[in-house]
């Protein structure tokens, strides 16, 4: 996600990990194996095996994220803590959630002074936290960058991201399937986006448009909201007034989707297949009840995955299911579509709006 995103807009699917390509060793150059060891380790990583969850050397991991002022962010923080509790060899130091970049910088400074073994950081502002993350890396402390990227890739040992463009592609691809399944002729497809000035919204909309284009469809009606319940209700009301018929509606965010559903209820407009985004428990319950068609996930597990990756790196391990002996530099999580057929698989990990 963009480092310039306001706190209300930063969210956004669950497990199903697509591992990125190893881009190179962190913070170093050359082909010397000693130089290519991950930051914070004394030797080259051990060969990946099937016993990664077995207790290893004790490691201390610092975790810092924004204030949990949104359901998705609350789930991010909880999942990180829960992941750490599963490992007796992990001591987790949790900084107080904040949307103040200066305060978060001081938190990372404290972790550096405490000489933690690794840092998992979901920055309130990726650009603002780049310098202090680089400082940690230079001190030999591997940094796991979650969700909002630093402005310099060398500020992190590994970056774990959701896939905003992929969300749009998933939503658009599913919409195309619905057009075919329902044998819709000249379908009206609508979109309720998030804040249009944000790269994440632009990426989601582009992915949606690109996927629709492949099946000869387009977005006929579009409005943008602000990732809040109130804005979702207001913009959905405007949308249904402007469009007397809608066959498929994609809403970018399930929190603002609460307001969208309220507007649809008030207008008695339930003729459309309503697709959500992000993966809230509320949306999944509506899917089970048949009141929503689907939702596209943006993983609230990113920080939990960060904790697991930080532990492996600090212990000099790789990911056991990969032949590569080192943890990848970049991991992008999948954006699957949740429908009535598979909702029970995802509901236990969904976040409350």
From TrEMBL:
Q: Where is this region: Disordered?
A: 27-53
Residues in Periplasmic binding protein domain copies: 61-317
On whether Signal is a keyword of this UniProt record, the answer is yes
A GO molecular-function annotation: carbohydrate binding
Signal peptide, first to last residue: 1-27
- Record family assignment: Belongs to the bacterial solute-binding protein 2 family.
What's the protein here called?
A: Sugar ABC transporter substrate-binding protein
């Amino acid at each position: 996600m963009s480092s310039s995103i306001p706190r209300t807009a930063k969210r956004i699917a669950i497990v199903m990990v697509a591992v990125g390509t190893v881009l190179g060793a962190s913070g170093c150059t050359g082909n010397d194996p000693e130089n290519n060891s991950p930051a914070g380790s004394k030797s080259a990583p051990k060969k990946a095996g099937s016993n990664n969850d077995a207790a290893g050397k004790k490691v201390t991991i610092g975790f810092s994220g924004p204030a949990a002022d949104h359901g998705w962010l609350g789930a991010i923080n909880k999942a990180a803590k829960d992941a750490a509790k599963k490992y007796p060899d992990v001591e987790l130091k949790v900084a107080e959630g904040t949307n103040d970049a200066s305060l978060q910088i001081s938190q990372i400074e404290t972790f550096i002074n405490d000489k933690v073994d690794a840092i998992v950081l979901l920055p309130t502002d990726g650009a603002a936290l780049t310098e202090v993350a680089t400082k940690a890396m230079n001190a030999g402390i591997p940094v796991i960058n979650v969700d909002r990227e630093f402005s310099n890739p060398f500020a992190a040992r590994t970056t774990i991201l959701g896939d905003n463009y992929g969300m749009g592609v998933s939503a658009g691809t599913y919409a195309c399937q619905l057009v075919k399944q329902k044998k819709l002729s000249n379908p009206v497809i609508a979109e309720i986006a998030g804040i249009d000035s944000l790269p994440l919204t632009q990426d989601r909309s582009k992915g949606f448009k690109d996927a629709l284009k492949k099946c000869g469809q387009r977005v006929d009606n579009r409005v943008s909201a602000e990732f809040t319940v109130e804005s979702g209700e207001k913009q959905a009301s405007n949308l249904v007034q402007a469009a007397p018929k809608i066959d498929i509606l994609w809403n970018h965010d399930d929190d603002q989707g609460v307001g969208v559903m309220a507007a649809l209820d008030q207008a008695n407009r339930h003729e459309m297949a309503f697709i959500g985004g992000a993966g809230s428990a509320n949306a999944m319950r509506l899917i089970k009840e048949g009141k929503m068609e689907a939702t596209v996930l943006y993983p609230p597990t990113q920080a939990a995955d960060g904790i697991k990756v930080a532990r492996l790196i600090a212990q000099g391990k790789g990911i056991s299911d990969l032949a590569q002996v080192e943890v990848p530099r970049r991991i992008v999580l999948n954006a699957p579509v949740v429908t009535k057929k598979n909702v029970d698989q995802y509901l236990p990990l969904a976040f409350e709006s």
